[in-house]
Design goal:
This is tRNA (guanine-N(7)-)-methyltransferase. The protein is an alpha/beta fold. The chain is built from ten helices and eight strands. Strands 1-4-3-2-5-6-8-7 form an eight-stranded mixed sheet, sandwiched between helices. Helix 5 links the parallel strand 3 and strand 4. The radius of gyration is 17 Å and the shape is globular.
Length: about 220
């Protein structure tokens, strides 16, 4: 993507009513006024709040919002030029129950209050295979603790990935730490009974993986 194109998208994001871009200082110093107020201030309802972490272009967030109009969705990514597409689509198609937040995932507990979130989706994260990158894996113990803080007691996390490594790493960590695995599948498109919301929505890259016969894995779990 050219730098001019990026700048244009950044400028356009600033005009979108469904895009929120707090500074790091705002979040860390607890000056972010939407923390604890997303339902009331942004969505104007009390519907369940669902996050997609590392949302990329926002395809999954937008598709979930269309499929579940009685839930509120927030796609989160540090790269605003990417989720510009999802934000623009939501405005063009008048999808009121999806918004986008530009921030780093490690600041997630500064952007949302305790027990504010009902559900989290992590879709096709970078598996960070090298050992020295363990701290960046989005399902490591540190990240799970952050998610637990903002999730309601019965809140769930969904991990959908094409990485067998990420799938295996996460399952091992969940079982080892005593978390509750509600569902796990090594190939959701080949096994009957896979959750419909997992197989009915596909990102652009996911479609490419499927064309290459690459298995898509899925885990649904609760953090204890």
């Amino acid at each position: 993507m050219g730098s001019k194109n990026k700048l244009r998208r950044f400028r356009e994001n600033e005009t979108f009513s469904n895009v929120f871009q707090p500074t790091r200082d705002e979040l860390v110093n607890s000056n972010f006024n939407l923390k604890g107020n997303w339902q009331h201030e942004v969505f104007k309802n009390k519907n369940p709040l669902v996050l997609e972490l590392g949302c990329g272009k926002g395809e999954y967030s937008v598709a979930l919002a269309k499929k579940y109009p009685n839930k509120n969705f927030i796609g989160i990514d540090i790269k605003g030029a990417r989720f510009w597409r999802g934000a623009k689509t939501a405005i063009e198609e008048n999808i009121p129950n999806v918004a986008f937040l530009r921030t780093q995932i490690e600041l997630i507990d500064h952007a949302f209050a305790t027990d504010e979130v009902d559900e989290i989706w992590i879709t096709f994260p970078d598996p960070q295979i090298k050992y020295k990158r363990t701290k960046h894996r989005m399902t490591n113990a540190t990240f799970l603790n952050r998610y637990k803080t903002i999730l309601k007691p019965e809140g769930v996390v969904n991990l959908k990935t094409d990485s067998e490594f990420m799938h295996g790493y996460t399952l091992g960590l969940l079982h080892g730490a005593g978390h509750e695995v509600l569902y796990a599948n090594h190939n959701v498109y080949k096994q009957e009974g896979s959750p419909e919301e997992v197989t009915s929505i596909q990102t652009f890259y996911e479609s490419q993986y499927l064309e290459q016969n690459k298995p898509i894995t899925y885990i649904r779990f609760k953090i204890k």
